[in-house]
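Help needed: design a sequence for this.
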């Protein structure tokens, strides 16, 4: 689905390659073809993002840029595999609360929801491939691939040469005509990507470096988020949240910072401000900023407007008018 406010800047080779720019995190989340996504901005400043997407006869390849830190809830289509390959060192990036290390890439099977936390100024390559295409190509090369193991590991660690090779292939396949280099034809591009993925899955080692406290902290964070979602229309104190999660303030704080890189108070603030922003963008003419803010537990409109502008670089009234 494409946002009505998205701005397509390039469509070449019979719409095979599409570049879409956006200036709002929520709108940007809807610009990735055939994904279900929900983005919240968790750093302050104007958001800019773009997605360069190339369809290779059923294989989706793309590169994505986002200027602000985000939490991302993502879901790709069934019977597929997604691989996410950060352009740069993946510091401060998390998938399902697990931090990425230098040579890690991310991997999730289709129809399985996952969550990313990404820093500002973030570039990533993405590939989504139907499992049948991958397995058929492997069979043609007399290579056995066991894809069942991928369900249990979000992070795959690659040899440096393998990681560099797939990044090089993707950089060649995902370039605009402004680069003055012809794109490889689709059938060749499809073979390059498929063989690159087979090489990855032959050489990867699951990153199983998980802190002993991870599962406990993950459960606490999920419990807190469920409680906040059920009570988003009223102020919640930290003491009340601790009581709801049956944990101490210190443990709650450590759990949020470990899993999301945010304190509970920061998470609550950003989540509610993003919720207000989404409603302002689709509000009817009869609705006011005060009505919408109150639905998200903001009762002091002066402080709310100040916090909103600090995060999104515009007043709530300006968002309502767009």
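Sure. Designed sequence:
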């Amino acid at each position: 689905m494409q946002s009505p406010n998205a701005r397509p800047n390039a469509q070449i080779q019979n719409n095979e390659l599409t570049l879409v720019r956006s200036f709002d995190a929520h709108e940007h989340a809807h610009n990735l073809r055939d994904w279900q996504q929900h983005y919240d901005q968790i750093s302050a400043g104007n958001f800019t993002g773009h997605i360069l997407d190339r369809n290779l006869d059923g294989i989706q390849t793309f590169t994505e840029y986002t200027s602000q830190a985000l939490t991302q809830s993502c879901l790709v289509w069934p019977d597929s595999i997604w691989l996410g390959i950060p352009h740069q060192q993946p510091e401060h990036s998390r998938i399902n609360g697990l931090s990425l290390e230098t040579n890690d890439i991310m991997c999730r099977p289709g129809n399985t929801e996952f969550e990313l936390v990404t820093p500002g100024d973030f570039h990533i390559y993405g590939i989504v491939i139907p499992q049948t295409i991958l397995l058929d190509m492997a069979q043609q090369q007399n290579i056995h691939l066991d894809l069942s193991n991928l369900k249990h590991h979000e992070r795959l660690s690659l040899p440096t040469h393998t990681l560099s090779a797939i990044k090089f292939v993707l950089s060649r396949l995902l370039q605009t005509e402004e680069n003055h280099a012809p794109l490889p034809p689709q059938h060749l591009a499809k073979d390059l990507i498929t063989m690159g993925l087979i090489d990855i899955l032959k050489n990867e080692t699951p990153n199983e470096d998980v802190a002993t406290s991870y599962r406990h902290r993950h459960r606490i964070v999920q419990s807190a988020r469920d409680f906040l979602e059920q009570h988003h229309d009223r102020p919640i104190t930290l003491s009340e949240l601790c009581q709801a999660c049956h944990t101490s303030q210190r443990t709650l704080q450590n759990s949020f910072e470990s899993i999301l890189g945010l304190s509970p108070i920061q998470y609550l603030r950003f989540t509610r401000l993003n919720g207000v922003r989404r409603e302002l963008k689709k509000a009817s003419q009869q609705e006011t900023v005060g009505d919408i803010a109150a639905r998200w537990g903001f009762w002091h409109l002066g402080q709310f407007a100040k916090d909103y502008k600090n995060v999104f670089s515009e007043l709530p009234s300006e968002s309502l008018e767009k």
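Residues 84 and 126 are 5 Å apart (CA to CA).
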